[in-house]
Design brief:
The complex is a heterodimer of chains A (60) and B (150). Chain A is an alpha+beta fold and 60 residues long. Helices cover 13% and strands 28% of the residues of chain A. Chain A is built from one helix and three strands. The longest helix of chain A is centred in the middle third of the chain and has 8 residues. Chain B has a four-stranded antiparallel β-sheet with strand order 7-6-13-10, with no helix packed on it. The two termini of chain B are 39 Å apart. The chains are: A alpha+beta (60), B mainly beta (150). The interface between A and B is medium-sized, with 22 and 23 residues.
Chain lengths: 60, 150
């Protein structure tokens, strides 16, 4: 399973969770990531599961 | 035994009912209603009268805790996890405008869902929602259900 991550305009991390809608993850990224924003497609295992400090996450 | 009705022997084309193709049934498009009439699907199924059936245009059931994940959805391309208790629902096929009605519930006691939160005005293609606890603080929820009608 994959996720799409990008830095939002507040400096936080936005994580897109794809739905089973018939689109590829690349098509979902093209559609749902804000225009002009750089993003990465990562494995879901790379996303922390402890959300205690979720709002302080950074993309490294 | 079944009785089939095909426009063409190979199943292509559409079976049309009504003088102006008011109802069209095809394998490719399903059942469609001509906009020349008014395009609406109407029924009396406990309404008490024949009335337009306004369908759910998008829905999603997701887990907003731990590994945020969608359990099931319809006409949703993705959800965006924006932070604690804050998500964006992205529609696979956009609404005709942003004047749709959205609603949702979540799984924790004393929680409520706010729509169009954090200054994000709904668009035809997405809407932002936030879950808050009784003290109005953002909070994740394991069960988030959201629907949109138009």
């Amino acid at each position: 399973m994959k996720r799409i991550i990008y830095q939002d305009d507040t400096g936080g991390v936005a994580i897109i969770v794809p739905a089973d809608c018939g689109l590829t993850i690349e098509q979902i990224a093209a559609k749902d990531v804000p225009a002009g924003v750089a993003y990465s497609i990562v494995d879901v295992a790379d996303i922390p599961t402890d959300r205690t400090f979720r709002n302080a996450w950074e993309i490294t | 035994m079944s009785i089939g009705l095909k426009a063409n022997t190979d199943g292509s084309g559409a079976v049309q009912i009504g003088g102006t193709d008011a109802v069209s049934i095809s394998a490719a498009l399903g059942i469609t209603f001509a906009t020349g009439v008014d395009g609406d699907f109407k029924m009396n199924s406990g309404y008490g009268s024949i009335a337009t059936a306004f369908g759910c245009r998008a829905w999603v059931n997701f887990n907003g805790t731990g590994v945020v994940a969608i359990r099931a959805s319809g006409n949703v391309s993705s959800i965006t996890d924006n932070g604690v208790g804050t998500y964006t629902v992205n529609f696979a096929t956009a609404m005709p405008d942003r004047d749709y009605a959205a609603s949702g519930v979540c799984g924790n006691e004393n929680n409520f869902i706010g729509l169009a939160t954090d200054g994000f005005v709904p668009t035809a293609s997405a809407i932002r929602l936030s879950i808050h606890d009784a003290a109005n603080m953002p909070q994740d929820s394991a069960f988030v259900n959201f629907v949109t009608h138009r």
